[in-house]
Design goal:
single chain, alpha/beta, eight-stranded mixed sheet, two-stranded antiparallel ribbon, 29% helix, 13% strand
């Protein structure tokens, strides 16, 4: 039996039991409060409850300390159907996030991320929910650490990323009839911005749309936004998010920050001289995801090599030594126009709209090797392209 699969099953079961226990305790409190009210006693619970679920960082009181647990490959998921969790009226706000480790050189060290469908499964159990707040849903690009072992431990497995995004879209589709009609406001930040440049924009990326050819996150968000009056979104997006067939008639305030990278592995921007390494691949998209892009099919030999490197050189591997290459500052016409046109057309289907913005932050921090190619450096300040 796969010992890693067995460990994951235990962890997911523990997580599910904790969520069930929390919701069960709240349900019991509501029952007791209702009984007290029937006896003429004052209510002990507020009418509008705000529930915060904070996933604490990885502890090692039950499990052996291991870098594979400090940088978990699999995200936490529920092992029961949402219908098997208590239905809790009276909860009007849900805040759900994983505790970060901002004091560490690698801020996601020991962080326990959640499966993208978990917030959707939970909101379906709160019929009076008005606001959903998810300040960090864990998506990120690979960080170009100089140490191969850190690249290995912190890598994003392409197949799991794709599956996670598909599960989000599937959850929206399956739970449409259970999304509370009262839901009006959401903050969904799929990645956290960093004050330090930490991306390699020349590195090949996976095509997370293949083989379906559509972005499940963008499609799911399109449907979810049709319920909302306010949306604060930060995500890797495609123009699919703006679908004329799904108008956002309730939307009043809209703020969308899109990542310069597209989910299909291409980019919305190029370098100052048109540099776009991704254009060298077929169809200017990312690489196709194969079976070996799942961790269970990865090379055990490679894992042994990087484990040995970390054990022998751990004092030099604090995560601060990186090789960022951030040079994409010029719009790639075809891609960015498709997004902006779709955004502009979608605005005409938002009759209640008061304010809207669509933007991306760009950073200039080319690698030392790439700097040689520039006679004059482009502006070093952060720029943005704004679709307000």
């Amino acid at each position: 039996m796969d010992i890693y699969a067995e460990a994951r099953s235990r962890i997911f079961a523990d997580f599910t039991a904790q969520i069930r226990g929390l919701l069960g305790a709240l349900e019991s409190s509501q029952v007791l409060d209702a009984q007290a009210a029937a006896d003429g006693k004052p209510s002990m619970l507020e009418k509008n409850l705000a529930l915060t679920i904070k996933i604490q960082r990885q502890s090692f009181d039950r499990y052996i300390k291991c870098l594979h647990r400090s940088y978990p490959t699999y995200t936490l998921s529920l092992t029961v159907f949402p219908a098997n969790l208590p239905l809790l009226p009276g909860v009007t706000k849900l805040r759900l996030f994983s505790a970060s480790n901002d004091a560490a050189a690698i801020r996601f060290h020991d962080v326990r991320p959640i499966w993208l469908r978990v917030p959707l499964e939970l909101l379906s159990r709160f019929p009076d929910l008005q606001e959903l707040d998810c300040p960090w849903l864990w998506e990120r690009l690979p960080i170009p650490f100089k140490a191969p072992s850190l690249r290995h431990y912190t890598q994003q497995w392409a197949a799991l990323l794709r599956d996670n995004r598909r599960q989000f879209g599937n959850a929206v589709e399956k739970l449409q009839g259970q999304i509370p009609a009262s839901l009006a406001k959401a903050r969904l930040w799929f990645w956290r911005p960093s004050l330090l440049p930490e991306e390699d924009q020349g590195e090949p990326l996976p095509d997370l749309l293949w083989p379906l050819g559509e972005d499940s996150i963008s499609l799911g968000l399109c449907t979810l936004a049709s319920y909302l009056e306010e949306l604060n979104l930060r995500a890797f997006l495609m123009p699919h998010i703006f679908n004329p067939a799904v108008p956002w008639t309730r939307m009043r305030r809209l703020r969308i920050e899109f990542h310069p990278c597209q989910p299909e592995g291409d980019w919305y921007f190029t370098g100052p001289f048109g540099e776009n390494p991704c254009a060298e691949s077929p169809k200017s998209r990312g690489f196709w995801i194969q079976l070996e892009d799942y961790p269970s099919h990865a090379s055990r030999e490679e894992g042994a090599i990087v484990d040995d490197e970390f054990l022998t050189k751990s004092e030099d591997l604090d995560g601060s030594d990186r090789e960022p290459d951030m040079f994409r500052t010029e719009p790639l016409t075809e891609g960015i126009q498709s997004l902006l046109v779709a955004f502009a057309q979608a605005l005409s289907n938002m009759p209640a709209l008061e304010e809207a913005e669509l933007f991306a932050y760009l950073t200039w921090k080319p690698s030392e090797k790439r700097k040689i190619d520039y006679v004059e450096d482009p502006p070093t300040t952060r720029a943005s392209i704004d679709g307000s």
